[in-house]
């Protein structure tokens, strides 16, 4: 049996901690415009509204919200750009 492991997929980490609504979504949208279809971006935010705004942004723009999890100081979102 082969013990080949799939390499970890590359992702861009974007630190938006300290920014308040609507800046996390606006900056995420601008950053994602330059990414290739299917690219992964991880967003870190401290804005409490991000738990509503980021999923809504993904839904509206057609991106896939892969994960959303709380962190010590806010939330982390992993988004896959629409293909």
From TrEMBL:
The lineage of its organism: Bacteria, Pseudomonadati, Pseudomonadota, Alphaproteobacteria, Hyphomicrobiales. Belongs to the sulfur carrier protein TusA family. Signal peptide: none annotated. This is Sulfurtransferase TusA family protein. Residues 13-81 form the UPF0033 domain. Pfam families: TusA. Transmembrane segments: none annotated. InterPro entries: TusA-like, TusA-like_sf. It comes from the Bacteria.
């Amino acid at each position: 049996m082969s013990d080949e492991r799939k390499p970890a997929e590359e992702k861009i980490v974007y630190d938006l901690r300290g920014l308040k609504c609507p800046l996390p979504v606006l900056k995420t949208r601008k950053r994602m415009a330059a990414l290739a279809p299917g690219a992964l971006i991880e967003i870190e935010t401290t804005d409490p509204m991000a738990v509503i705004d980021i999923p809504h942004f993904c839904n509206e723009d057609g991106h896939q919200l892969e994960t959303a999890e709380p962190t010590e100081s806010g939330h982390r979102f992993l988004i896959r750009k629409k293909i």
